[in-house]
Each structure stands twice: as structure tokens, then as C-alpha cells.
Amino acid sequence: MDELNRLLGIRLKALRQQRGWSLDRTAQQCQVSKAMLGQIERGESSPTVVTLWRIASGFGVSFSELLADQEPGATDWNVWWRGPISPASTLGDGIQVTTLLPYEAALGYELLLVELPVGCCYFSVAHEEGAIEQILPLSGQMSLWYDEAWHSLLPSQALRFAADRAHGYRNDDTQIVRFHNLIFYPRRSRANPLLAES
Q1: Which residues form the HTH cro/C1-type domain (predicted)?
Q2: CA-CA distance, 90 to 49, in Å (whole number)?
Q3: How far apart are the first and last CA of the chain?
Q4: In angstroms, rounded to a whole number, what is the distance separating the alpha carbons of residues 5 and 15?
Q5: Which residues pair with 115 in a beta bridge?
Q6: pTM of the model
Q7: 89-184: which CATH topology?
Q8: Which one in 76, 89, 159, 183 has a CA-CA gap of 20 to 30 Å to 83?
Q9: What is the share, in percent, of the chain residues with pLDDT greater than 70?
Q10: Nearest of 122, 94, 125, 86 to residue 7 by alpha carbon
Q11: Which pLDDT tens digit goes with each residue over 106-153?
Q12: Which one is the CATH code of 3-72: 2.40.50.140, 1.10.357.20, 1.10.260.40, 3.30.450.20?
């Protein structure tokens, strides 16, 4: 069993238990089938980025919190920090994600390093209301889908967009495309999003 799949299963089960949610309630909240959630919990599935975003949104946690092997908010933003906190996670669609700076409620953002394999094109689900992504390409040519069109983006350029609607990423190059993804989440009503009522 792949280590990432095993850790995701443990994390999903812990989030469910902290909320007191059944698999049925989790499926409804996350818009992911009960069967798929069960497979993820047992470490039998390599979920896609879209599935992981749906789960994160359903629980009201950031992407890095979902992939973390520690409790949300366990880091102290008020101290010197050096990332990444863990090696790259290769997700079900070949996309690699490395958390450089984990989400911290007091700051409201997380910083990810994303690597898109050659030929990769994927569409993300809308994030929570008010979420903003800032894309900073490091290597290769890529395009972003937002406002019903593809927008080309090269290294040394940057793009900021509202991530609370459908958007997508495409590798337009013949090599792996690498970019930083700085995601801002609107401040939540409580410091620990697991305690917030849905």
C-alpha cells in the first residue's frame, strides 16, 4: 500500500471522527461517493486532485491541512519557518504537490509547489467563497482556465484569480511545468476550522 494513500486514509478518518460524521454524511458534505471515501480511508485508492479538493472543501480545511500528518493549526506562524514540511505528494493524476508553507488560520494562506506532468490538464472544483489563488510559474509554459477561457502564463509572470469558481491548469510544454501556488482562504469564524459548524 502506498504511504501517501495510507496517510490520507488515516487523515480522512480522523477528520470524520472529529466531526462525528458517518460516511453517508461525509459523502453528502464533500460531494464524493461513499464507496470512494471508504476506499480512501482503507488506503485502497489514489484520489485525484479534484477529489482531494472536494474533501478539503467539505471539511472546511485547506489543501495542505488535508495532506498534513499533524493536526490543523499545529504549527506556530509566529516563529521562523523553513519548508517544505514533507516530501512531494504524487496524486492520482500524476500531479506532484509539496507544501512549502502550511495553512495557518492566523495568516489565512498556504504556499504549495505544484508540478504538472507533460500533457496534464485538470479542472479544479471551486474553493470556499472568497478564496484567491496566486500562480507564480517557475519553469515551463502553462495555461490557466478561468472566466471561461485559457490564459497562457510563462515563468517570471504571475496571475491572481478568484478561486471560488471553477478553474483549471494545463501543461502546454514538452517538459514538467513547476509553479508556486499561493492560496488565500478567507478568515474563518474560529481559529480551528474543525470546530466550525456547517
Answers
A1: 12-66
A2: 10
A3: 33
A4: 15
A5: 96, 178
A6: 0.71
A7: Jelly Rolls (2.60.120)
A8: 159
A9: 83
A10: 86
A11: 888 999 999 999 999 989 888 888 999 999 999 999 999 999 999 999
A12: 1.10.260.40
